[in-house]
């Protein structure tokens, strides 16, 4: 008799969730363990929180998340080894305060990846190695981050090589957002194909899945999963939520009626969207090796602060009291 979300999906894929250390106690931990069998650190394993100064690592939060996973026999996904956001300033500067050389930066990236991946070897089964390297502007290919400015394209392959050397068993992912949109999908595909052709140790692609009641369509989602898996890569949904607001600024500006109220109409549209995307997930269970939600319930979601600070959002399957929403029942009823 299924009990929590994960139980309905036990023959499909692990059901994961992004957590903060404070989620791992009392009723929140109970709720988590009832519904999920995989966890990811929402922030604790990013470079800035973990490695704020040269030769200094802050392990407590990351360790508490890994230990919780290990102690309860659930999977732990690592996030993220190389990202342009939440990367500490010192990483990109030399001893004189000038921009670091390529050699220096790659040496630091290697040290960081070796230290972190080896510490959790055998405990973290999959890593987001490179996060969000494709530019938002469709006319460009890679994002003009400090990683790119200093190293050119090389930092991407290097990051995967370092991670593979540090833990040859870990599944290594490239992770990005808006990947189901055709123009970005094509550029992500181009990058992944290059890496695969060059025999870089990459094993999967993470589609973040910061979606909304307006996107993606069933066809777009299906096409993206098929196109990426045709490269022989695993596909995971790594940061799932379904915003009740449209993502684009232009469209947002035309909606002055947005007031943070979760109307019956919005609930229905969100329920339909969740039903649709989970149908596609189930149809692709051979290549889809994990689905991770970005936060536990509507009580706390990063979308309350982004892109509009203080506008309440309701993007998850559980409400502010941790009770299953209409969308939950639709997702488990198949
Ligand atoms: O911990 C500090 C705190 O000490 C400080 O006082 C406070 C003041 O701003 O900031 C706190 O850090 C914040 C951190 O979340 C923890 O709450 C950062 O400012 C804030 O920028 C950070 O936001 C996170 C964001 O990534 C940037 O790292 C979100 O929680 C997190 O949900 C979000 O997750 C990302 C994925 O990693 C990658 N894909 C997109 C996704 C959503 O943006």
Automatic annotation (TrEMBL):
<keyword id="KW-0624">Polysaccharide degradation</keyword>
<keyword id="KW-0326">Glycosidase</keyword>
<dbReference type="InterPro" id="IPR044846">
    <property type="entry name" value="GH10"/>
</dbReference>
<dbReference type="InterPro" id="IPR031158">
    <property type="entry name" value="GH10_AS"/>
</dbReference>
<comment type="similarity">
    <text>Belongs to the glycosyl hydrolase 10 (cellulase F) family.</text>
</comment>
<keyword id="KW-0378">Hydrolase</keyword>
<dbReference type="InterPro" id="IPR017853">
    <property type="entry name" value="GH"/>
</dbReference>
<feature type="active site" description="Nucleophile">
    <location>
        <position position="239"/>
    </location>
</feature>
<dbReference type="InterPro" id="IPR001000">
    <property type="entry name" value="GH10_dom"/>
</dbReference>
<keyword id="KW-0119">Carbohydrate metabolism</keyword>
<protein>
    <recommendedName>
        <fullName>Beta-xylanase</fullName>
        <ecNumber>3.2.1.8</ecNumber>
    </recommendedName>
</protein>
<dbReference type="GO" id="GO:0031176">
    <property type="term" value="F:endo-1,4-beta-xylanase activity"/>
</dbReference>
<dbReference type="Pfam" id="PF00331">
    <property type="entry name" value="Glyco_hydro_10"/>
</dbReference>
<dbReference type="GO" id="GO:0045493">
    <property type="term" value="P:xylan catabolic process"/>
</dbReference>
<keyword id="KW-0732">Signal</keyword>
<feature type="domain" description="GH10">
    <location>
        <begin position="1"/>
        <end position="334"/>
    </location>
</feature>
<keyword id="KW-0858">Xylan degradation</keyword>
């Amino acid at each position: 008799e299924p009990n929590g979300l994960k139980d309905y999906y036990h023959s499909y894929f692990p059901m994961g969730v992004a957590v903060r250390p404070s989620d791992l106690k009392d009723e929140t931990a109970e709720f988590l363990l009832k519904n999920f069998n995989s966890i990811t650190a929402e922030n604790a394993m990013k470079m800035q929180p973990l490695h704020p100064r040269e030769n200094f690592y802050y392990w407590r939060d990351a360790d508490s998340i890994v230990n919780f996973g290990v102690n309860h026999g659930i999977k732990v996904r690592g996030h993220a080894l190389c990202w342009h956001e939440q990367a500490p300033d010192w990483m990109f500067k030399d001893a004189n305060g000038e921009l670091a050389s390529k050699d220096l930066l790659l040496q630091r990236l290697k040290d960081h990846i070796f230290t972190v991946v080896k510490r959790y070897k055998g405990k973290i089964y999959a890593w987001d190695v490179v996060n969000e390297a494709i530019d938002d502007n469709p006319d460009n290919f890679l994002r003009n981050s400090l990683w790119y400015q200093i190293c050119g394209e090389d930092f991407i392959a290097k990051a995967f090589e370092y991670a593979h050397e540090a833990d040859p068993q870990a599944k290594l992912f490239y992770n990005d957002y808006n990947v189901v949109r055709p123009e970005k999908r094509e550029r992500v595909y181009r990058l992944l194909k290059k890496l695969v052709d060059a025999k870089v140790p990459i094993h999967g692609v993470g589609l973040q899945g910061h979606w909304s009641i307006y996107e993606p369509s069933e066809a777009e989602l299906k096409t993206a999963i098929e196109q990426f898996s045709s490269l022989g890569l695993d596909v995971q949904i790594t940061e799932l939520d379904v915003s009740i607001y449209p993502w684009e600024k232009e469209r947002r500006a035309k909606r002055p009626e947005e007031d943070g109220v979760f109307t019956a109409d919005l609930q229905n549209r969100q329920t339909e969207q969740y039903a649709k995307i989970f149908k596609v997930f189930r149809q692709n269970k051979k290549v889809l090796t994990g689905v991770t939600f970005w936060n536990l319930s509507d009580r706390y979601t990063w979308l309350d602060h982004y892109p509009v600070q203080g506008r309440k959002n309701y993007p998850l399957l559980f409400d502010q009291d941790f009770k299953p929403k209409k969308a939950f029942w639709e997702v488990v009823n198949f």
